[in-house]
Amino acid sequence: MENVKRGNYRWIVCALLFFATTINYIDRQVIGLLKPTLEKEFHWTEVDYGYIVMVFAIMYAVGYVIFGTFIDKVGSKIGYGISVLVWSIAAVMHAFVKSTFGFGVVRGLLGLAESGNFPAGIKAVAEWFPVRERALATGIFNSGTSVGAVLAPVIVPWILGLYGWQEAFIITGSIGFIWLIFWWIFYEIPTKQKRLKQPELDYINSDEDQGAPEIKIKIKWADLLKLRQTWVYIVGKVLTDPIWWFFLFWLPSFFADTFALDLTKPSFQLAAIYGATTFGSIGGGFLSSHFIKSGWPVLKARKTTLLIVAILVMPIFFVQYASDIWSVVALVALATAAHQAWSANIFTIVSDMFPKSAVSTVVGIGGMSGSIASALFPLFVGTLLAYYKDLGNISAGYHILFIISGCAYILAWGVIQLLTRNMKPIESIIEEAV
Q1: What is the rounded CA–CA span in Å between residue 26 and residue 148?
Q2: How far apart, in whole angstroms, are the C-alpha atoms of residue 196 and residue 193?
Q3: Dihedral through CA 254, CA 29, CA 18, CA 181, nearest 10?
C-alpha cells in the first residue's frame, strides 16, 4: 500500500533500461548466428571472421571511454538516446555492405555505439533509485543481456528462414528505433519528470547520505585513475569480464566438442544455462539490496554479496568429474548465474562510491579496461585449446579454462578487499586535492 501511495515510476525507467540492454545483446549476436550463411555469401575464412570480431571488441573498448565521458557531459537522456540511435543505424547497415571490409567498418561502428549502454544505464539507475534499491534495479536491467542471449537464437534463424540474411539485420536493428520513441517520451531525470509524484521523488533522494555526495568540482579523467575507488571497479571488470566472454562464445563449442551437441538444432542445454543468468542478475541485486534494507553499511553489503557469488562460481572446478551433460549444465549454469550476480553488484559499486556527475566516466574507464582484457583473453583461449586439440584431448584445455574461471572471482574479491581497507570517502580526497 505504501508503494501505491509513493508511486513506482522509477520501475518504468528500469524497464526501459532492461529493454535497451536486451536489444543491445540481440544486435551484437546477429552476425554470429548468421556466420554460416555469410561465410558462403562472402567467402569468408576464419581469419576474416576473426578480424571482424576483433574490430568490434577494440571499438567497444574505445567507445566505453568516449561514451562514458560524453554521457556525463550531456546527461543520460541525450547520451543514451544517441548511443541507441547510432548502434541501431549500424546494425541495419550490415544488410547493405558488399565486402568483408564493409562488415568490419559497420561492426566497428556497432561496437563503438553499443558501449554506451552500460555507462548510461548505470547513470540512470544512480539518478532514479535510492542506494538501497540500486543493485536490484541494476540486476533487473542487466538481465537483459541474458534475455537477449536467449532470444537471438530464436528470432534470427526464424527471420532468416522466412526472408533472408539482409532482412535479419534490418528487422532486429530496427527494434532500437522503436525503443527510442518510448525513451524520449518517458525518460527524464527525476527533478524534471512531470509524471513523478513528490512522495516518490522524496523516496529516491531519501538515502543520499549513504552514497557518494554530489561534488561541484569536475573530477578529471586522469585524477580518477589515482583513486582507489576507481581501481575497485577496474579490478572487478578486468579479472571477470574475460570469463563472461569465454562463457558466451566458447560454451557452445565446448558442448559440441565434449558431448557431440548438434548446434544446428535448438539446444535446451544452452537455453538452460543462459536462462539461469537472468535469475543470477536479479538475485544478486536483490541480495545486496536486502542487506542494506536490513541495516548493513552499503559497502559491506556489496562486498559480502560479491564474496558469496565468487564462492558460487568455484564448483565449476568439478566439471571435469561430471559424466553426463546435465550435470555439467548445472555446474556451468551456477557459474554463469553467479557472474551476472557479480556484474549487477560491481556496476552498482560505482554509483555507491562516486557522485552522479562522474558515474558514467568511471563506468567507461572500467568498461574499457574489461573490454581490452576480454579482447586479449581469446588469444590465450584459442592457443590453449589448439594445443590440446593437437594432442587429441581438447577436454583438458577446457578444464584448465574452467579452473581459471573458478579462481578469477575470488581473486578479484581479494584484491577489492585490500583496496577498500582504510579507504577514504571520495569527498575527503577531493577536498585534500583542492
Answers
A1: 5
A2: 6
A3: -170
- C-alpha cell read off for 91: 546494425
pLDDT per position in the chain (434 positions), as tens?
Answer: 455 577 899 999 999 999 999 999 899 888 877 877 888 888 877 677 777 877 888 898 889 888 888 988 899 899 999 999 999 999 999 999 989 899 999 999 999 999 999 889 989 998 999 988 888 898 899 888 888 878 887 788 888 888 999 999 999 999 999 999 999 999 999 989 999 999 999 998 886 555 555 545 566 767 788 888 889 989 999 999 989 878 877 777 788 778 887 755 666 787 788 888 888 888 988 999 899 889 899 889 999 999 999 999 999 999 988 888 999 999 999 999 999 999 889 888 887 878 777 777 888 888 888 888 887 887 788 778 888 888 888 888 889 999 999 999 999 999 999 998 876 666 555 555 44
- Residue 426: name the closest of 253, 290, 232, 287 by CA: 232
Which residue intervals of 294-355 are DSSP H helices?
298-313, 325-353
- For 1-207, give the CATH class: mainly alpha
**Residues 169/32, Cβ–Cβ less than 8 Å:** no
DSSP H helical segments within 43-75, as ranges? 46-74
Domain ranges of the chain: 1-207, 219-434
Angle between helix 35-42 and helix 165-186 axes, rounded to 10 deg: 130
> Residue length, the chain?
434
- Domain boundaries 219-434, corresponding CATH code: 1.20.1250.20
CA distance linking residue 297 with residue 295, whole number of Å: 7
For residue 359, give every residue at least 6 positions away whose Cβ sits within 8 Å of its Cβ, in sequence order, or none.
Answer: 72, 119, 122, 123, 126, 350, 351
- How much helix, strand and coil, in percent to the nearest 5, is found in the chain? 85, 0, 15
Closest CA to 338 of 280, 251, 395, 253: 280
Cα separations in angstroms, 340 against 130, 167, 282, 345, 413: 21, 32, 8, 9, 15
* Strand, helix or coil for residue 166: helix
The answer to whether the pTM exceeds 0.85 is: no
Cβ-Cβ contacts under 8 Å for 181 (sequence gap 6 or more): none
First-to-last CA distance in the chain?
47
Grid cell locating 11: 520501475
1-207 and 219-434 agree in CATH topology: yes
Rounded-to-integer distance, Cα 56 and Cα 35, Å: 15
